[in-house]
Prior knowledge:
4-stranded mixed beta sheet; single chain; nickel cation binding; metal-binding; 13 strands; 3-stranded antiparallel beta sheet; 13 helices; globular; nickel; magnesium; alpha+beta
Amino acid sequence: xxxxxxxxxxxxxxxxxxxxxxxxxxxxxxxxxxxxxxxxxxxxxxxxxxxxxxxxxxxxxxxxxxxxxxxxxxxxxxxxxxxxxxxxxxxxxxxxxxxxxxxxxxxxxxxxxxxxxxxxxxxxxxxxxxxxxxxxxxxxxxxxxxxxxxxxxxxxxxxxxxxxxxxxxxxxxxxxxxxxxxxxxxxxxxxxxxxxxxxxxxxxxxxxxxxxxxxxxxxxxxxxxxxxxxxxxxxxxxxxxxxxxxxxxxxxxxxxxxxxxxxxxxxxxxxxxxxxxxxxxxxxxxxxxxxxxxxxxxxxxxxxxxxxxxxxxxxxxxxxxxxxxxxxxxxxxxxxxxxxxxxxxxxxxxxxxxxxxxxxxxxxxxxxxxxxxxxxxxxxxxxxxxxxxxxxxxxxxxxxxxxxxxxxxxxxxxxxxxxxxxx
Length: 423
């Protein structure tokens, strides 16, 4: 999330490390964000395609339709458990949304022992939510032959490099670590921290898009193509799964090993597997909350370092729920930002998303015939990426006029779709 990436960039601008306690609170807060965010994406955007059916009408294929299928009791349970993560937001950062506790060099809100005990109870709710989510995925997707063919087949497959964040033991982490890159075969081809991203990532401006297209600088721009030798890369839950060697919490590690076995190894290039990896990360984040909150030192009142003068430049990198997020600031002597560059997950995934949509469209759209069910089979290709175009285009309203021209194999226009009215 931008809140956390920005405070890490501010740490770097002031040349200061947060106190150990502040770092723990930040990680606690951040893992709670993972639980609530992954829950929302899975149950509102991911599961309806499977539970309600990929070609069901939009009136049925939504969160309400999902609840009608799985039962009101399950729906209420999911919402209740998710709110436990949101409550941890409030206890650690002052609000249930739009947190206010981040400061360069630390955190403005300490955690009392009473709050720590409450968080421990809330963590149990989050763990139960993680178990429930993995169980739903198992029963709805893994035990359904038709859906597993979609998940493991070639229609929703994009072969790219991958980037994610790992700790010193190569385990998947979200708040802090080293950014690691692997190629299409899973071989490591780079590691960096902070401003080192400039040695590995370049951005290309495309005349037809408001988004830039990142690529691996050492390979060079080769266009929006996948396969061996490509310079584009993917980020997010599946990328982290491919980059890391697992998790350091038991329930998530067990689920990770099950997924590796199901695909016969790594890397996994199947886009719909993002949902599976996301469900595993929800479990991991819940376990992390319990682990961090079990540390009594988190109530230490020393939550902020003294600041000196700004050093003029800083980079903050986190694993946002949807993928690697980079904030790069340059400032004046007062710490006022004079230049900023943000590379967000949806920007990193520019190439893979376009290829995924094109591949699905080529597979499902025949003879120019398009209906609601076919359109959704195409949309399924990009939903796993959990898009945020407001972030990736740096456009505050989050909505820009879009026209889609459907072209046949002769290059002739078949149909035009718009999200705006012609005047």
